[in-house]
Amino acid sequence: MIARKWAGRAVAAVLCVALAIYIATTRGFALTAPWARQTEGISDGFFVVGLFATGIGALALIATTGFFDMFAYGVKSLVMFFTALVRPEDHGNYFDFHQGREARRAKPRYFVLLLGVAHLAVSAAFWVLHNASV
């Protein structure tokens, strides 16, 4: 189980780095390019991926706190009101819905958030190198 968890994390990290390198090459990174152009491309690539991963990681972390339970209950209530498949008597109140979700809630996952912050740190380091070389 633990090896599977680390394998998933390794795949996510490799995909993020591969996407950052792809974005860097589309932004002008090449081994034959001048140093300033290389650092600019790497900084841009890691910034885009870092921003995306940090946003997804923050949303995943917030989702484990129960913040989105009210929205989920609202969507479930709208479906109940506009379809004949569910009777209003079968529809529980928000407290019961929230307690049921609380019992099934997963523990917080920090890896994607930390991966995004690491990409942002790499981007910041290459941005500083770029500004020092210009």
Written description of the protein model:
This protein has helices spanning 2-26, 35-63, 69-82, 94-104, 111-133. The protein is mainly α and 134 residues long. The chain has one domain (2-133). It is elongated. The termini are far apart. The relative contact order is 0.17. The model has no long low-confidence stretch (mean pLDDT 87).
Mean pLDDT: 87
Major pleated sheet: none
DSSP, total strands: 0
Low-confidence stretches: none
Assess the beta-strand content as a share of residues. Answer: under 5%
Using only C-alpha atoms, the radius of gyration works out to 22 Å
SSE blueprint:
Blueprint lengths: L1 H25 L8 H29 L5 H14 L11 H11 L6 H23 L1
Helix pairs in contact: 1-2, 1-5, 2-5
